């Protein structure tokens, strides 16, 4: 039997393979969540560069958030990454949820990024 880590990696690769096939040159908004924090970055796979990123580990966010592991923190990170992406000239992305199910913190981040101006 495969370990949990291998199963998560396999699921993430399956999702990422599908996303890259439908991306049509759009950058992807990649999301990772841990038990204590959430991270988001807009990645241009053609150039291999990160265009914008945000996480709950940033100094200005750590002071204002109660914890980095709730939907409120995810919403703040979503708005921040959308704001930074728009400054970099990105408005359309594909959403890469990785191995995570689209609910809870992942959904809160996606909804906040949509409100912030990103379309996917």
From TrEMBL:
SUPFAM superfamilies: Translational machinery components (SSF53137)
UniProt cross-references to Gene3D superfamilies, sorted A to Z: 3.30.420.100
Highest taxon listed in the record's lineage: Bacteria
Gene Ontology terms for molecular function: 5S rRNA binding; structural constituent of ribosome
Keywords, comma-separated and alphabetical: Ribonucleoprotein, Ribosomal protein, RNA-binding, rRNA-binding
Gene Ontology biological process: translation
Gene Ontology cellular-component annotations: cytosolic large ribosomal subunit
CDD domains: Ribosomal_L18_L5e
A matching Pfam family: Ribosomal_L18p
Matches recorded under InterPro entries: Ribosomal_L18, Ribosomal_uL18_bac-type, Ribosomal_uL18_bac/plant/anim
Record's subunit section: Part of the 50S ribosomal subunit; part of the 5S rRNA/L5/L18/L25 subcomplex. Contacts the 5S and 23S rRNAs.
Family in the record: Belongs to the universal ribosomal protein uL18 family.
Annotated protein name in UniProt: Large ribosomal subunit protein uL18
Organism: Rhizobium phaseoli
